[in-house]
From TrEMBL:
Main subcellular location: membrane
Name under which the protein is recorded: Nucleobase:cation symporter-1, NCS1 family
Pfam family, one: Transp_cyt_pur
Originating organism: Pseudovibrio denitrificans
GO cellular component entries: plasma membrane
NADP as UniProt keyword: no
Membrane topology (UniProt): Multi-pass membrane protein
The keyword Translocase is assigned to this record: no
């Protein structure tokens, strides 16, 4: 019997739910170390759009209040993120595949593609901002002025790097993180000097715009609400302590990144954006310093721009978008094709227009994705208690078929939670999360579970429905389907993945 996870074209064609990039990741394929995961989060947090969050806050609030608000918003979001991360560390499955449980094998495409489009748009925004900076710098150095060319070249470079696999993404983050942080320190003191020279004290500055602490808090939670739901795409590759049922031991490599790296670095970069606004009235410190510097200053800025946007886009935007498109188009859309599609969608969304309304955009998509987070946590922790019938996630006629492939409980809870969150936009994240959580629980208990048997709820067998906790892997065997195996039983020729 051929034991392989890399399915041939015949076996792929047997199911629209199968494609190598969305099969479970085994314990001996978990390539991201603790240091690498921290590096990923440092790199992801250092993005040009974060500068705008700090500047938007200080336009109406004192700087210490702005930084404290951003820190605690990210700390709270880290709790949600650490919980959804367990889907990846425990079962090794991606976000879109997991959504087959609460939404159905067909219904998964509605929320997952929504998230994929959001990720693709963020890719476009990041690439556009990077292209503008690159164009400005090289226009000064060489006289060549064409941001469109830089956009295309930068986009292609990022797609190629991500297509090389998660190890290439981690290596980039390990290089980018320390370089970015060093440059950011230099940026802070440069901008602080500009503010002092113009007679402004950054810590006593107070803008006159109407900005509430609550609005800033919710906007910052919305900023990373996308990764709060699809972080399993990354944590399924994170090295874990196998054979332990302790949530904290199993996810110990998640916590330092989620609860220290993210809130600290996000606050730091927002601080730089705020200081830039105070010093020059411009939220973008790249533009401000570029206007003040020459020679080596512009080269340093070039390094900052390239590394910050590149390292963020690969892990936070391209991978999530590509996997949702692969999930929707399997087995015909491969991982590489999904990456290209993500880049195209992100460009067609015209990110240069969205950037002018960033806070509105954050509020709208944050509302919808907050609802999704509430459903995921309710389904995984409250209803299934982390046990998951993973083989059935890959069966078209299995327990997750529900009604024509859709679970109405998930779809209704998501729609209602999202709609109420948009209506109460100032509290969107909280309204969406808790409304969807509660409504999903009620609908599942009163309607869906009595009609559609969920085997992991009937037979609460940890040995059958857990993976990492019992030192096992979910492995697809050609001709046999999904089975559970320990690492020593998996043949070496079956270890190849297109996304490693």
């Amino acid at each position: 019997m051929a034991q392989t996870q890399v399915m041939d074209e015949t076996s792929r064609g047997q199911s629209r739910l199968m494609e190598p990039a969305i099969l479970p990741v085994w314990l001996n394929q978990r390539a991201i170390s603790n240091r690498g995961y921290i590096g990923l989060w440092i790199s992801m947090a250092v993005i040009i759009a974060t500068f705008q969050l700090g500047a938007g806050g200080v336009a109406g609030l004192p700087l210490p209040i702005v930084i404290a608000t951003i820190f605690f918003a990210n700390l709270l979001l880290g709790i949600v993120m650490a919980m959804t991360a367990d889907i990846g560390t425990e079962h090794g499955i991606s976000f879109a595949v997991y959504l087959r449980a609460p939404f159905g094998t067909v219904g998964t495409h509605i929320p997952s593609i929504t998230r994929g489009i959001v990720a693709a748009i963020w890719f476009g925004i990041q690439t556009y901002l990077g292209a503008l900076a690159l164009n400005g710098i090289f226009s000064y150095l060489t006289g060549f002025d064409n941001w469109v060319i830089w956009y295309i070249g930068f986009a292609v470079l990022q797609v190629i790097n991500t297509a090389m696999g998660i190890r290439a993404v981690e290596r980039l983050a390990k290089i980018a993180a320390p370089a970015i942080m060093a440059i950011s320190v230099w940026m802070y003191f440069t901008l602080d000097g500009l503010a002092t020279a113009s007679g402004k004290d950054i810590w006593s500055f107070a803008g006159d715009a109407e900005i509430s602490i609550v609005a800033l808090f919710v906007a910052n939670m919305a900023f990373w609400s996308s990764l709060a739901v699809d972080i399993p795409n990354i944590t399924r590759f994170l090295k874990v302590e196998a054979g332990t049922k302790s949530f904290f031991k199993r996810n110990k490599n998640v916590f330092l990144a989620q609860f220290i790296a993210l809130p600290v670095v996000q606050s730091w970069i927002a601080l730089i954006g705020a200081v830039s606004f105070i010093a020059a009235g411009d939220w973008n410190p790249i533009t401000v310093i570029q206007g003040q510097g020459t020679g080596i200053t512009l080269v340093v800025l070039l390094v900052m721009v390239v590394l910050a946007q590149w390292s963020t886009n690969t892990s936070a935007n391209l991978i999530p978008a590509a996997l949702t498109f692969v999930n929707a188009g399997a087995p015909w859309i491969t991982y590489a094709m999904g990456l290209v599609l993500a880049a195209i969608v992100g460009t067609l969304a015209m990110p240069w227009l969205i950037l002018d309304h960033l806070f509105t955009y954050l509020g709208l998509y944050g509302a919808m994705l907050a609802s999704l987070g509430g459903i995921m946590i309710c389904d995984y922790f409250v209803i299934r208690k982390r046990r998951l019938n993973v083989p059935e996630l890959y069966e078209e006629e299995g327990q997750f078929k529900y009604i024509a492939g859709c679970n109405p409980a998930g779809l209704i809870a998501w729609a209602v939670g999202g709609a109420l969150a948009i209506y109460a936009i100032d509290l969107s994240y909280f309204v969406g999360f808790f409304t969807a959580f509660a409504l999903y629980w009620v609908l599942m208990k009163a309607w869906i579970l009595p009609k559609f048997k969920q085997d992991e709820l009937v037979h609460t067998d940890d040995e059958k429905y857990l993976a990492t906790s019992i030192n096992r892997n979910w492995v697809y065997l050609d001709g046999q389907g999904m089975v559970k195996m320990d690492c020593s039983s998996i043949p070496a020729h079956a270890l190849s993945r297109e996304d490693l």
